Amino acid sequence: MIKGLIADIQRASIHDGDGVRTTVFFKGCPLSCKWCHNPECISFEKEILYYPEKCIHCGMCDKGCFSGARVVCGKSMTADEVLSEIMLDVPYYGDTGGVTFSGGEPFAQGKFLNACIDKCKENGINCAVETSLMYFDEEIFKKLDFVMADLKIWNSDLHKKYTGAGNEKIIENFENLNKLNIPIIARTPVIPEINQGIDKISAFLKTLSNVRKYELLPYHPLGNSKRKALGQKADGFSVPSKEYMKELEKYAYVR
């Protein structure tokens, strides 16, 4: 029986695609974006996040942390177990909602992702994947209702500096998805210290007929509390001003 490593399952999400969605966060990612707001999803291993301000010094750590000071991230699950969680939200999906497999990178656990999608499709559930596009599995992509993917930085050297890998494969896979005519919601995280070439990203995406929307997402420091809990340093990036976002909004679009 195939099992996958799941970081979290978030119910009733409204930020991960169309309608009300259940977001399943896979653990492990081939990228290591310095601003990642889910740093606990980068490693392919189970991890412990420690929040000292929640510790009540009960001395019961070996039996499990009752105060939430120590949180284990990473649970081995079967596709049926994931489906059971998803089914709890089905009454709220309506005509547009469904499940979004996110992470981390779902395609890094391709066989398990495929099993989860098959279970959902057997139950008539709309399926999307939020992906780095560092992988391309045509069989899985063809089963999806839409894809959410970032094109973070246009310059490949800068992309490698801040994410750990160049962007050539990502750009190639945007083009591959266009050939399959699979709808994409494309996005770029807006980080004043590093963003270059958003105009070029927008122009490239406009050449792809399957990109139905291009969103610019302002950076937020949400991931820093989790970074600290993992024993890592804060990323040090700045939240873009409203004026800065206003200057860039001409590059975003909806078709």
Automatic annotation (TrEMBL):
Required co-factors: [4Fe-4S] cluster
This protein's UniProt keywords: 4Fe-4S, Iron, Iron-sulfur, Metal-binding, Oxidoreductase, S-adenosyl-L-methionine
Residues annotated as domain Radical SAM core: 15-255
Residue ranges constituting the 4Fe-4S ferredoxin-type domain according to the UniProt record: 46-75
Pfam families, per the entry: Radical_SAM
UniProt-recorded Gene Ontology molecular function terms: 4 iron, 4 sulfur cluster binding; metal ion binding; oxidoreductase activity
Metal-binding as UniProt keyword: yes
Catalysed transformations (reactions): glycyl-[protein] + reduced [flavodoxin] + S-adenosyl-L-methionine = glycin-2-yl radical-[protein] + semiquinone [flavodoxin] + 5'-deoxyadenosine + L-methionine + H(+)
Similarity annotation: Belongs to the organic radical-activating enzymes family.
PANTHER family in the cross-refs: PYRUVATE FORMATE-LYASE 2-ACTIVATING ENZYME, PYRUVATE FORMATE-LYASE-ACTIVATING ENZYME
Protein name per its UniProtKB record: Glycyl-radical enzyme activating protein
The organism of origin for this protein: Qingrenia yutianensis
